[in-house]
Amino acid sequence: MTRPITEALKAPARPLVRWWRAKAYASRYCRRLQEHRRAIRRRIAATDPIDPGVSVDALWQRVDNALPADIGRSERWLGRPPLSTAFAKYWTRYGHVYDGIGREKALEHALTFELLDFRRIHRYCDVAAATSPIRYPLADDWGDVEAWRQDLLFETDLSKQIVGGFAQSMDAIEPGFFDALTLHCSLEHFQGTADVELISEIDRVLSNQGACLILPLYLATTHRVYFDPTKVSSRAVQGYDEEGDLFAVYGYHQDHGRFHSPETLVSRFLHDVPSTLDATLLRFHDDGSLDPDIYLRFAVLHRSDSVFRDRND
Ligand SMILES: C[S@@+](CC[C@H](N)C(=O)[O-])C[C@H]1O[C@@H](n2cnc3c(N)ncnc32)[C@H](O)[C@@H]1O
Asked: Is residue 312's pLDDT more than 90?
């Protein structure tokens, strides 16, 4: 009984608390941005919101020109069946799981279930999972699949199917252990060369029918690192990708978000994919048909005959 009373007393103060927090954030943001600009010898542009600076069509054209022939390309339509119907069904069943998170995350997860053949998956790991809710639909629909979670924030506990530490060195995991890996909104947070190093670790831990989905895979007109000045030290910002432009983003609340240019995607990230892995880049059309904020396309690293459904049907 005490709880509803306390909640009722707190309710009128909430708008005030929100207003005060927003004001405090705004002044912290300006102060930290100035401090970073004074402290480091690199230009920091300020932007709000994140804008890739070029149309998706133009980016895809550049991707197509830059990609070597042995990297596959595939195009999918979010506004047409089977993906439109799969997402509608997923949202009806699991929309409640994404309360306060939003439809973009639900779409990422619905696509994971469409693009990976879970009937052939014995062990799955969501890499850099943080608090991702994908485990709930997974447990409901694919209760026989071993569901692992990995994140820098976790302590390894194999009995609970949790892998902690850097994803690029999952030393506790045997070679060939997982049939499927996913990175949802994660790869862009891997700092320095961690994302490039992850490719050989993916090759090591995937089974011989394994596949790894990375979605979204963020691209922009230039190679760039977005960050929230309140979340990071000047020293860290100074060390962000030398080849990248630096952008402070108001309200981003993340310390690092890398967007490759089509050219650096190839020269930096995909330049040394082991011969035991194939890579496919997907482009999604009709992204606005589901939600104007959805911006996704992704890379898939997979064995030649894998659990990745490499077709449009
Ligand atoms: C935005 S969160 C991802 C959220 C989650 N995948 C989801 O979709 O809800 C990014 C995560 O990447 C993790 N991370 C960053 N670098 C990492 C690394 N090298 N290895 C493992 N996790 C890393 C962070 O700890 C953070 O939890």
From this structure: no
132 CB less than 6 Å from ligand 1? yes
Q: How many domains does the structure of the chain reveal?
A: 1
Residue 186, ligand 1, Cβ within 6 A? yes
Report CA(5)–ligand 1 centroid distance (Å). Answer: 38
The CATH number that applies at residue 59 is: 3.40.50.150
Q: Would 69 be classed as within a structural domain?
A: yes
Quick check: CB of 104 below 6 Å from ligand 1? no
pLDDT confidence of residue 291? 53
Query: Of how many residues is the chain composed?
Result: 313
- Over residues 151-173, mean pLDDT: 98
Q: Is residue 184 part of a domain?
A: yes
Q: pLDDT tens digits, residue range 51-88?
A: 888 888 888 899 999 999 999 998 898 889 999 999 99
**Residues of the domain holding 57:** 43-302
- For residue 60, being part of any structural domain is answered with yes
151 CB within 6 A, ligand 1: yes
Mutate-to-test residue for ligand 1 from 151, 170, 196, highest number of ligand atoms within 8 A of CB: 151
Query: Which single residue is written with the structure tokens 């011989």?
Result: 208
Q: Is the CB–ligand 1 distance for residue 109 below 6 Å?
A: no
